Amino acid sequence: MELTDFYRIFLQHPVVCTDTRKIKKNCIYFALKGSNFNGNAFAKDALQKGAAYAVIDEESHKISDKTILVDDVLKTLQELANYHRNQSKTKVVSLTGSNGKTTTKELIHKVLSKKYNTIATVGNLNNHIGVPLTLLTIKEDTEIGIIEMGANHQKEIEFLASIAEPDFGYITNFGKAHLEGFGGIDGVIKGKSELYDYLQANEKYVFLNADDPIQKERLSTYINKFGFSETDHEYYNIKFLGANPFVKFKFENEEVSTQLIGAYNFTNCAIAVLVGKYFNIPKTAIKDAIESYHPENNRSQLIEKNGHHIILDAYNANPTSMKAALDSFGEVESKSKVLFLGDMFELGETAAKEHQAIAHLAEEMEFNNTFLVGENFSKVASTFKKFKSFETLKAHLENDKLSPASILIKGSRGMALERILEYL
């Protein structure tokens, strides 16, 4: 079937599903494959549950004209998404970076939604499947789409940009994330900059943090850019006022008090202001949007429990975000500060060194009590309490209850340190 013919079917059934447990009536089911599953085997089930069509790439599962046989289901999904993106008049803003992508995306979405019909990546569906699925939610009246792009190796952002074809782009930062896949920090910079490469090659617009020396240097000669800075008056001025614990900042004499914890969230807020200004959102609406944003999903959440003031930042972690979280926690005013730090994943051969560096930084900051959790942290040279697994930490907490304190919980997603809350 030609892509144009398939697109006509999509327009009649513009809801896409990839999981038969979430089938919606009259949707199109795409039978994706994974290391532990084969979606083709569920095509019949999808149709029985109400899907209008099932897209498959194994002929043995073709049972009627409602099963559309293609060479590669994933490739077809990506091609359909790109075609749909190009048929729409929607402006696409793409984001990538080592840290802060999802929070930045949600802040920009809040701001732009004050004036425009806007869609954005749901959760962190930011890979070779999530980006196409988000693009396919663009409707005829969608004015702006905000597309988050994640990557853990070279050429991934380049590929995602070729699908989304963004009109605007922003890189949150270049940090020590996915070092194993990228091959070190230089590889991270090169990989994330693939978004810049696409935007510049196609003469599209770039948003930038002009106080980030890598971004500023990388875009020094590029004309189509709009940046913010605290000090450089060539760029739009946004001033950080502090974070104890919530971020406060100022732009155009508007003082903004956010519900976001940690100085590292300032630049996430600042870019939302900048994008709002570019798209002519009134400054009072920008202020209202950012002040009303409340973080969820274990991202810099402030939780009060049994006398504890808990900063839960357990969605993810890498050396850059870990250091930022520790620096910010160090500024919090409290008589008693307790740390729970979990392993940072995907660091490859640098894992031992990076975990030791974080442990050393925590020692220098002299918090009242520090708990290190995970295979890597359990091996560092430190006087801190070390636990090889969550189960051993759990046993300790059940027998030795903490007195009320300010607590930071930070670790990679795979550590699931939000489980600590149950034992505090």
TrEMBL record:
<keyword id="KW-0573">Peptidoglycan synthesis</keyword>
<keyword id="KW-0961">Cell wall biogenesis/degradation</keyword>
<comment type="pathway">
    <text>Cell wall biogenesis; peptidoglycan biosynthesis.</text>
</comment>
<dbReference type="Pfam" id="PF08245">
    <property type="entry name" value="Mur_ligase_M"/>
</dbReference>
<comment type="similarity">
    <text>Belongs to the MurCDEF family. MurF subfamily.</text>
</comment>
<keyword id="KW-0067">ATP-binding</keyword>
<dbReference type="InterPro" id="IPR051046">
    <property type="entry name" value="MurCDEF_CellWall_CoF430Synth"/>
</dbReference>
<dbReference type="InterPro" id="IPR013221">
    <property type="entry name" value="Mur_ligase_cen"/>
</dbReference>
<feature type="domain" description="Mur ligase central">
    <location>
        <begin position="96"/>
        <end position="275"/>
    </location>
</feature>
<dbReference type="InterPro" id="IPR036565">
    <property type="entry name" value="Mur-like_cat_sf"/>
</dbReference>
<feature type="domain" description="Mur ligase N-terminal catalytic">
    <location>
        <begin position="16"/>
        <end position="83"/>
    </location>
</feature>
<keyword id="KW-0133">Cell shape</keyword>
<dbReference type="GO" id="GO:0016874">
    <property type="term" value="F:ligase activity"/>
</dbReference>
<dbReference type="InterPro" id="IPR000713">
    <property type="entry name" value="Mur_ligase_N"/>
</dbReference>
<comment type="function">
    <text>Involved in cell wall formation. Catalyzes the final step in the synthesis of UDP-N-acetylmuramoyl-pentapeptide, the precursor of murein.</text>
</comment>
<feature type="binding site">
    <location>
        <begin position="97"/>
        <end position="103"/>
    </location>
    <ligand>
        <name>ATP</name>
    </ligand>
</feature>
<dbReference type="InterPro" id="IPR005863">
    <property type="entry name" value="UDP-N-AcMur_synth"/>
</dbReference>
<keyword id="KW-0131">Cell cycle</keyword>
<keyword id="KW-0132">Cell division</keyword>
<keyword id="KW-0547">Nucleotide-binding</keyword>
<keyword id="KW-0963">Cytoplasm</keyword>
<protein>
    <recommendedName>
        <fullName>UDP-N-acetylmuramoyl-tripeptide--D-alanyl-D-alanine ligase</fullName>
        <ecNumber>6.3.2.10</ecNumber>
    </recommendedName>
</protein>
<dbReference type="Pfam" id="PF01225">
    <property type="entry name" value="Mur_ligase"/>
</dbReference>
<dbReference type="InterPro" id="IPR036615">
    <property type="entry name" value="Mur_ligase_C_dom_sf"/>
</dbReference>
<dbReference type="Pfam" id="PF02875">
    <property type="entry name" value="Mur_ligase_C"/>
</dbReference>
<feature type="domain" description="Mur ligase C-terminal">
    <location>
        <begin position="299"/>
        <end position="392"/>
    </location>
</feature>
<dbReference type="InterPro" id="IPR004101">
    <property type="entry name" value="Mur_ligase_C"/>
</dbReference>
<dbReference type="InterPro" id="IPR035911">
    <property type="entry name" value="MurE/MurF_N"/>
</dbReference>
<keyword id="KW-0436">Ligase</keyword>
